[in-house]
Amino acid sequence: MATSNRLQTQLYINAKWCESSDAGRFDVVDPATEQVLASVANATSADAAAAVDAAGGALAGWAALAPRNRGEILRKAFELLDMQKERFAELITRENGKPLADSRAEVGYAAEFFRWYSEEAVRNIGQVSRAPSSGARILVQHKPAGVAVLITPWNFPVAMGTRKIAPALAAGCTVIVKPASETPLTMLLLAEILQEAGVPAGVVNVLPSRRSAAIVGSMLKDPRVRVVSFTGSTETGRALLGEAAKFVVNPRMELGGNAPFLVFEDADLEAAVAGAMTAKMRNMGEACTAANRIYVHESIHDAFVTRFGAAMGALKVGNGLTAGVAVGPMVNRGALEKVESLVEEARGRGARAVTGGHRLPGPGYFYAPTVLDEVPDSAACLGEEIFGPVAPVQRFHTEAEAIQRANQSEYGLVAYVYTRDLSRGLRVSEQIDAGMVGLNRGLVSDPAAPFGGVKQSGLGREGAHEGLMEFLETQYISVGW
Ligand code: ADP
After folding, report:
1. Which of 86, 110, 251, 416 is deepest in the core (most CB within 10 A)?
2. SS (HEC) of 307-353
3. Any idea which fold 259-446 has?
4. Each residue of 428-443: pLDDT tens digit?
5. What are the C-alpha distances in Å from 128 to residues 143, 240, 269?
6. Where do the CATH 3.40.605.10 domains begin and end in the chain?
7. Other Cβ atoms closer than 10 A to 336
8. Coil/strand/helix, residue 218
């Protein structure tokens, strides 16, 4: 079946499109125009039960399919998504707001998870060893964990989905995806692609819903559900961990971040500014990997701030569909107001806006790219995720101070380090409490690398071989040989 040009707005359960059991719907708004893009079916707990039945029913068949066959289907999904890059990119821009260039990059990144896990599906490798004293053989193998509930955020509407769906399917799990209510259309379009790629009925189900807590809670109660994989805020993650604990469901949590960006005195200044632009402005700063706290050595602080401020100030803001626009709107009014209040609070405490520092006229939730200098330690924007185009800069004096400041956060997702001295770079990287470090790189996300954080940033890893293991259970058989 070829995908149509019409937007899918219904629930996708057992390879069928359907309305919610109470016929409820909710609106999806274009953040650049504040106009309603579409209304989407609002799944109920009864729909969630139907989706778990579908996923549970499909599990044995999918798990038994030869890994090579599962891999071929994932490979096909990669090809189809790649072929339809423009269509996906435009839809992402419409519902999320990010500029087309960012959307295209996201679709490319998203598709790569299908390619990587099409290759990883055939590398579910166990081991055999001899028990040291009993003489038995220890046979270890990895089996699909079961039905997985995947909950995705609005900032990367397709990539945060494929980063979970691809390893789950490679492992032999079946899934129910609950996309973010701000951006469900992209995930529904992905369901069409997966159907076309040959994913059997029930293996992937998609449930847009405004009743997240109720429907997810009801799914976790079902003993067939063995994994809940979530990407979103630490606050929601904590609530979900509580739910998962009640029913002893495996939690995989990609939560918030508050990334430090360290620029040492021996850094290549041009590269550091370019890296800061990427680390801060990818997705308008609406990323858990966004550089939130920029620490620059005192000897180059002024030169860095001048160049960085000029680069940020030159970015064109507007509707992401317009050519040349580099910064789109915030995803919704709440996000805009949060950014605005963090900047006002920092200014009230003495911070200075080098560029930006204000919202832009609507319609649409636009905020000017902002660099804040002389930010005092007490400013809230250093402690909380900003999730917007605002870059607070502070200066440091010694390497030890830089490390101490970098680690001064409850989060530990990613850090960025710029220095020409490789031994310093590695020494500093090792001392930073973060799951990932970009050393002279402003971007760490890669399907072949384990993505994830420590401390309040989460549990588990996505991508790489580790990502596959998150959807497998280890079984050991003691064999009298
Ligand atoms: P944000 O990224 O907007 O801060 P959240 O962490 O609140 O988002 O949400 C991320 C995802 O989790 C979205 O799909 C959202 O609908 C869903 N969600 C929100 N609250 C809950 C909850 N209590 N239980 C399960 N899922 C939730």
Report:
1. 416
2. HHHHHHHCCCECCCCCCCCCECCCCCHHHHHHHHHHHHHHHHCCCEE
3. Aldehyde Dehydrogenase; Chain A, domain 2 (3.40.309)
4. 999 999 999 999 999 9
5. 15, 36, 52
6. 11-255+457-479
7. 21
8. helix
Range 452-469 average pLDDT: 98
Q: Are 393 and 261 in contact (CB under 8 A)?
A: no
Nearest alpha-carbon partner for 388 in 361, 360, 418, 413: 360
Helix or strand run (H / E) with residue 393: strand 390-396
pTM above 0.85, yes or no: yes
Q: Say how many CA atoms lie within 13 Å of 162 toward its Cβ.
A: 30
Q: What's the whole-number average pLDDT of the chain?
A: 97
| Closest C-alpha to 292, from 375, 180, 397 | 375
On whether the CB atoms of residues 28 and 39 are closer than 8 A, the answer is: yes
Give yes or no: 340 in active site. no
Ligand 1 atom nearest to CA at 181:
16
Q: Is the pLDDT of residue 1 over 80?
A: no
User: What's the pLDDT tens digit per position in 269-279?
Assistant: 999 999 999 99
Pick from 151, 211, 338 the residue to mutate for probing ligand 1's pocket: most ligand atoms within 8 Å of its CB: 151
**Ligand 1 in reach of 175 Cβ (< 6 A):** no
Q: Is the CB of 256 under 6 A from ligand 1?
A: no
How confident is the model over 102-135, as pLDDT tens digits?
999 999 999 999 999 999 999 999 999 999 999 8
Quick one: fold of 11-255+457-479? Aldehyde Dehydrogenase; Chain A, domain 1 (3.40.605)
Taking the C-alpha atoms of residue 184 and residue 151, their distance in angstroms, rounded to an integer, is 11
176: left (phi over 0), alpha (psi -120 to 50) or beta: beta
Give the pLDDT confidence score for residue 6 in this predicted structure: 83
79 burial class (0-12, 13-18, 19+ CB within 10 angstroms)? Answer: middle
Q: Where are the beta strands (DSSP E) in 241-311?
A: 250-254, 259-263, 291-297
What is the token pair recorded at 256? Answer: 């918030």
Tokens 């993650």 found at: 237
Q: Quick one: average pLDDT of 254-273?
A: 98
Cα–Cα distance measured from residue 174 to residue 63, given in angstroms and rounded to the nearest whole number: 8
| 375 Cβ inside 6 Å of ligand 1 | no
| Closest CA relative to residue 149, chosen from 74, 224, 60 | 224
Torsions phi, psi for 289 (to 5 deg): -90, 0
- pLDDT, one tens digit per residue, over 354-396 is 999 999 999 999 999 999 999 999 999 999 999 999 999 999 9
Asked if 114 contacts 78 with a C-beta cutoff of 8 angstroms, the reply is yes
Residue 416 has pLDDT above 80, yes or no: yes
